[in-house]
């Protein structure tokens, strides 16, 4: 038994379907990557499938699984510009799930499509890739999740650090001296932005011991204290710093904030769980 395969048709079909699926995965991940990135990712996927077909020794079940896993990983990394391993793994799983649903939708609609030309193929492809994304988006909205997560990149002293941030409507901290909203960050997150000497000075400030001579990198961040209060606790003070900038990405948004104010949580506070930062809603909604 043998099959006749037209590589040009195989390439074009995979290119179109992979592109539509990557656009859907981008949407599901809450990212705003350009169509060009999705096109590059789909181009890699289509070329990879064609090359795999041309290799005589690589058509077994085991090689098929390995090739598809490798191609899916590269496609998501390029097409969705994922930054962390966890995000990459989630994107690959979403791509596989969307592909499975798209194949099912394709089989359901195929009997009702009279022609087999390029327009019919595009309609089937758009429906197969679009329906999974639309269905999951509707489910998410109906579920009405209170927690919204973003990917936040902090910049200070010529360095950057990426963290997972939680949009918290209960965070109403405000720095009245500069008139800016305040987000809360875990002190450990800042270790990649400041030197050991600067972190030592920061810990002293957290303990309430204001040192006369602060390290230069810490002094540039204008450390000061801001009042705060929480339910069931007495009013207190939090150490606040002004960073160079931060970027926030997720939920279909991307924004850059210059000179943001962040407050450091005190040891023992249970704000964070798996998050490195608690975002002030005014920072996102402004």
TrEMBL record:
The keyword Transmembrane applies. Signal peptide: none annotated. Keywords: Membrane, Transmembrane, Transmembrane helix. InterPro entries: SpoIIGA. It holds the Pfam family Peptidase_U4. The chain crosses the membrane at residues 92-109, 121-139. GO terms for biological process: asexual sporulation; proteolysis. One of its GO terms (molecular function) is aspartic-type endopeptidase activity. It comes from the Bacteria. The keyword Transmembrane helix applies. This is Sigma-E processing peptidase SpoIIGA. It comes from Candidatus Egerieimonas intestinavium.
């Amino acid at each position: 038994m043998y099959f006749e395969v037209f590589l040009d048709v195989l390439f074009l079909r995979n290119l179109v379907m992979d592109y539509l699926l990557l656009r859907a995965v981008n949407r599901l991940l809450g990212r705003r990557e350009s169509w060009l990135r999705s096109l590059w990712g789909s181009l890699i996927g289509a070329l990879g499938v064609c090359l795999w077909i041309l290799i005589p020794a690589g058509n077994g079940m085991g090689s098929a699984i390995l090739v598809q896993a490798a191609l899916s990983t590269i496609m998501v990394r390029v097409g969705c510009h994922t930054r962390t391993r966890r995000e990459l793994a989630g994107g690959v799983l979403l791509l596989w799930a969307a592909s499975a649903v798209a194949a099912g939708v394709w089989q359901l609609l195929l009997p009702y499509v009279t022609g087999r030309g390029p327009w019919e193929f595009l309609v089937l492809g758009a429906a197969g890739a679009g329906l999974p994304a639309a269905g999951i988006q509707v489910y998410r909205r109906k579920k009405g999740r209170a927690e919204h997560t973003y990917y936040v990149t902090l910049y200070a002293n010529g360095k950057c650090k990426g963290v997972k941030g939680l949009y918290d409507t209960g965070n109403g901290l405000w720095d009245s001296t500069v008139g800016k909203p305040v987000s809360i960050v875990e002190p450990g997150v800042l270790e990649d932005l400041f030197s050991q000497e600067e972190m030592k000075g920061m810990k002293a400030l957290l303990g309430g011991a204001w040192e006369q001579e602060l390290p230069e990198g810490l002094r540039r961040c204008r450390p000061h204290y801001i009042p705060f209060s929480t339910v069931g606790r007495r009013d207190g003070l939090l150490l606040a710093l002004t960073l160079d900038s931060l970027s926030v990405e997720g939920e279909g948004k991307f924004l850059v904030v210059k000179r943001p104010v962040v407050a450091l949580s005190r040891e023992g506070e249970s704000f964070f769980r798996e998050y490195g930062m608690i975002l002030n809603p005014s920072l996102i909604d402004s």
